[in-house]
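Need a sequence for this fold. Nothing fancy.
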């Protein structure tokens, strides 16, 4: 598998998102960003080393009643999509039928596409 080259800005944003999200796991943030869990972990550990932060005091557990930066799931998705450069998701059409439409000779005739029933 080929290695991907991520920008320094993307790496820094991914690390910041992980560090600022109480209760987040490498797995959850990596999945949201579309990267490998081990890749995110490596970025976080390198950043902590660069800053001289020890593992013990790196990311304290969220205190009860602490403000969550992005409690709205839609807002979190928008932040993650902005990090990835993903175009915003469109809302699915409401009320439309997902049933397959007949094609070919039976289309528009009102006939059953499966043929006449006896």
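Here you go.
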């Amino acid at each position: 598998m080929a290695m991907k080259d991520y920008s320094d800005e993307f790496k820094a944003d991914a690390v910041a998102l992980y560090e600022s999200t109480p209760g987040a796991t490498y797995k959850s943030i990596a999945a949201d960003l579309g990267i490998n869990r081990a890749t995110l972990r490596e970025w976080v550990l390198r950043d902590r080393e660069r800053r001289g932060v020890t593992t013990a005091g790196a990311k304290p557990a969220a205190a009860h009643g602490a403000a969550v930066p992005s409690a709205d799931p839609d807002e979190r998705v928008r932040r993650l999509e902005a990090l990835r450069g993903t175009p915003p998701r469109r809302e699915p059409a409401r009320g439309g039928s997902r049933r397959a439409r007949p094609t070919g000779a039976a289309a528009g005739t009102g006939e059953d596409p499966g043929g006449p029933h006896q």
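For context: The longest helix spans residues 37-51.
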